[in-house]
Amino acid sequence: HRGAGRHGAAILMYHSTTPGHRQPDWPWAVAMAAFRAQLDFLQEAGYQTVTLRDLCAESRAPSDSPRVAITFDDGYIDNLEAFAALRERNMCATWFVVAGSLGENPSWPDDGRPLGRLMNVDELRELQAAGMEIGSHSLSHARLTNLDISSLRQELRDSKAMLAEIIAA
Fold it and tell me: What is the pLDDT of residues 35-56, one digit of tens each?
């Protein structure tokens, strides 16, 4: 935090937010109380939240105020509470969602991940309408580094096309 802004924006990555104060067992999750406290700290310290698209469009010059890009992977339904906390503070974030599982329970292995479905099309549109960025985290949550080039292209192409159609509607 002390050197924030001198070397560019900070990027914070989340997957899941869980109710209450207790730190979840899954290492990719954070308790909602801790998430809210982190947002409050960022706000009080003068951080400006930016989407990754905005961050990429900005010049690489140091900023007068520190910037932070907040990201979420997968698109779990519990992210809606995080979305509400961001909106309350006039902050934004970027969601990388698994396009082929929208509104469904995840089809990838349960390694302690949250229970329940991913956000659906209407929920993603609500996020986008509120200034959040929606990006692709592939079509099926495949390990992209394990795919042959043809499968990799299909994962990325189909996910991008599906999300573009959803967001444009």
Answer: 999 999 999 999 999 999 988 8
Q: Please write the tens of the pLDDT for every residue from 154-168.
A: 999 999 999 999 988
Q: What is the 3-state secondary structure (H, E, C) of the chain?
A: CCCCCCCCCEEEEECEEECCCCCCCCCCEEEHHHHHHHHHHHHHCCCEECCHHHHHHCCCCCCCCCEEEEEEEECECCHHHHHHHHHHCCCCCEEEECHHHCCCCCCCCCCCCCCCCECCHHHHHHHHHCCCEEEECCCCCCCHHHCCHHHHHHHHHHHHHHHHHHHHC
Distance CA 142, CA 122 (A): 24
